């Protein structure tokens, strides 16, 4: 099962809205096939594992291990449970049940009714952690929320406005290795969100430059449509959603999606509802301080990734305040990265 989790991570950032599942097939204590979920619309992990077996006659005396309950319904592809039954695999070991209403135990039921021996809950903790995005989306009806910011050694997230250069660009606190890691993270999540002040101050691209992969959907808060049309977020190089209260469609920019929200009432929850409707299963919230703090105060976050650089501003915009369980601390050259979980 640990190997299933390991290979499943190959699907990180490409399988959504499908879960990134890992599967392998064992015969006589030997792994004879393995697979992970293909990019959305492609084959599921079980199918890829079965297809990788060179001698299919061995399947009738094999055990299939899989991180998540095999699906039992028709979607982009036929049910995996049906294929397992068709190929005559007698034993199936499952990490966790699938909470999706179209599965929810039906895959297990179908396998058992066909005579398969099914075992559930092997390395359940590890499988729950691995499938955290998918599980959060379907159990809490919102994306898995990652807060990310960088702060100086003296606790500031940005300098005073007078300290900024005339050109609108990010004012870096972290080193290049930390910034590359952030781009890797972006490739792993479905969405990236930033507030109006951050976009106006930094003119960020919110894309992938230092890592290969699929760029996340940009979600930008712009209550009064203040952001100039020549800013990077309007380059139409990736899907972009602008959240505003302006209903005049003549102000819309072609190629950009606009969503109307009420900025006077529970903005974080409205954003979660919108992302759920848009099938955005995970999001990195990259700022600014006010936007980050609003999600913290609403208790709508799952983990925070906080960089602390070596430089100081003395004055500036204070970093958000957060309380949670420190899961990990990593030194990246001159930067310290702290991972905090909302347990």
UniProtKB/TrEMBL annotation:
It catalyses: 2,5-diamino-6-hydroxy-4-(5-phosphoribosylamino)-pyrimidine + H2O + H(+) = 5-amino-6-(5-phospho-D-ribosylamino)uracil + NH4(+); 5-amino-6-(5-phospho-D-ribitylamino)uracil + NADP(+) = 5-amino-6-(5-phospho-D-ribosylamino)uracil + NADPH + H(+). Residues 1-119 form the CMP/dCMP-type deaminase domain. Zn(2+) binds at residues 44, 71, 80. The keyword Acetylation does not apply. The active site is at 46 (proton donor). Binds 1 zinc ion. Keywords: Hydrolase, Metal-binding, Multifunctional enzyme, NADP, Oxidoreductase, Riboflavin biosynthesis, Zinc. InterPro entries: APOBEC/CMP_deaminase_Zn-bd, CMP_dCMP_dom, Cytidine_deaminase-like, DHFR-like_dom_sf, Eubact_RibD, RibDG_C, Riboflavin_Biosynth_HTPR. GO terms for molecular function: 5-amino-6-(5-phosphoribosylamino)uracil reductase activity; diaminohydroxyphosphoribosylaminopyrimidine deaminase activity; zinc ion binding. PANTHER family: 2,5-DIAMINO-6-RIBOSYLAMINO-4(3H)-PYRIMIDINONE 5'-PHOSPHATE REDUCTASE (PTHR38011:SF7), DIHYDROFOLATE REDUCTASE FAMILY PROTEIN (AFU_ORTHOLOGUE AFUA_8G06820) (PTHR38011). Converts 2,5-diamino-6-(ribosylamino)-4(3h)-pyrimidinone 5'-phosphate into 5-amino-6-(ribosylamino)-2,4(1h,3h)-pyrimidinedione 5'-phosphate. This is Riboflavin biosynthesis protein RibD. It comes from Maribacter hydrothermalis.
